[in-house]
Write a structure and sequence with these properties.
Blueprint lengths: L4 H9 L5 E5 L3 H17 L2 E8 L6 H9 L7 E7 L6 H12 L5 E7 L4 H4 L2 H9 L1 E4 L8 H11 L6 H11 L3 H14 L7 H7 L8 H10 L2 H13 L4 H23 L4 H7 L4 H13 L2 H19 L3 H14 L15
Parallel strand pairs: 1-4, 1-5, 2-3, 3-4
Length: 344
């Protein structure tokens, strides 16, 4: 069963499942989901908790002993395993073995990073998610982020104007923990309600946090204004232009191959499979291919060459300027005025 974070509290009221799988890239949501399980379990007599980080050197005998041991003071216990990004055959077998030992007095909580479609089809995950609950704890998509932000204000008993919600979304996109901390601080200040943008601008500190992969996905969607904000945030955080150049180069290589295949009338399904492009990203790439003809992608390659030249000359300002220009190029198929593109 899959239950999203906003539904999880109500889900727990219906009773505990044998196991919970909490996976995703948002630390705050992950921490809150696991803590919610702990609180409900504690009320039901799960007073003993054993936590393990699965890494090289882990003594699995300790894990198995914890699963089988019965405390003198508590008959019910929680076993928590934080998994690495890759679950190999050996680890999958160990997880499956632990899953076989579950009983009403033993609760299993597995956590880790974001899962792809292949990982969610693995036998160990499929079996445990059928008997337990899978909670995907990823950062809300931009279109759902205002809803999450509004609910966060309500959680702390604060009323806020719609434009103030949008301001908070821009200020804390990619960093839910900082957003939650700032909202909690507001409760201590006793702000006038409903809270306005003007009040927020005077009191909060911006903590937007992004990754190069969020930049790429935003570009594929054609949301170039948001991409410019991400670039500014990445630069402020000290991200090197070279890292972004490498990420964009890899994405353009795939786009070029797929655009040429589409122009030749070839089905893209086979190319998606060979390039190991996740199903969740295929739609984003299809959107980009619909907007960007081969000629526009070639122009982006010319801009990438200028970016590479700027990096070789250690011209940081020029490198960031070229990154901003490349980002603008993802808007549509119209050639940018900086370069002439030869017709294909």
């Amino acid at each position: 069963m899959r239950v999203y974070p906003e539904q999880f509290a109500d889900h727990l009221k219906a009773g505990l499942k044998p196991c919970y799988l909490v996976f995703g890239d948002e630390p705050l949501l992950k921490l809150e989901a696991i803590d919610a399980v702990r609180q409900v379990a504690r009320k039901q007599g799960f007073d003993e908790r054993h936590s393990f980080v699965v890494e090289a050197g882990l003594d699995w005998n300790q894990v198995y002993d914890a699963c089988q041991a019965m405390s003198l003071f508590s008959a019910r216990q929680i076993i928590e395993l934080e998994l690495p990004a890759k679950v190999d055959k050996d680890l999958a077998a160990r997880i499956t073995e632990i899953g076989k030992q579950l009983h009403p007095d033993l609760l299993l909580v597995l956590s880790g990073g974001r899962l792809n479609q292949t990982q969610m089809k693995a036998a160990w995950f499929d079996k445990l998610s059928q008997s337990g609950t899978y909670v995907p704890v990823n950062h809300p998509e931009p279109r759902f982020f205002p809803r999450w932000m509004s609910a966060r204000f309500q959680r702390f008993g604060l009323k806020v104007l719609p434009d103030a919600v949008n301001f908070m979304c821009h200020a804390f996109e990619g960093n839910l923990l900082a957003a939650s901390q700032e909202i909690e601080k507001l409760t201590l200040l006793g702000p006038p309600q409903p809270i306005s943008v003007a009040y927020l601008q005077e009191t909060i500190i911006r903590h937007a946090h992004f990754t190069p992969f969020q930049l790429v996905d935003t570009l594929l969607e054609g949301k170039v204004n948001r991409a410019q904000r991400i670039l500014l945030a990445l630069r402020a955080e000290g991200t090197e232009p070279g890292m972004l150049a490498w990420t964009l180069c890899r994405e353009l290589e795939q786009l070029t191959e797929l655009a040429l295949a589409a122009r030749a009338g070839q089905p893209l399904v086979e190319h998606f499979s060979r390039l190991r492009i996740w199903q969740s990203r295929q739609q984003l790439i299809q959107q980009a291919l619909t907007r960007l003809p081969v000629g526009k992608i070639q122009q982006l390659w010319q801009l990438m060459a200028r970016l590479d030249d700027a990096q070789r000359r250690f011209d940081t300002e020029q490198a960031w300027l070229m990154l901003q220009t490349i980002a603008l190029g993802f808007r549509d198929g119209a050639p940018l005025p900086l370069l002439e593109v030869e017709p294909c």
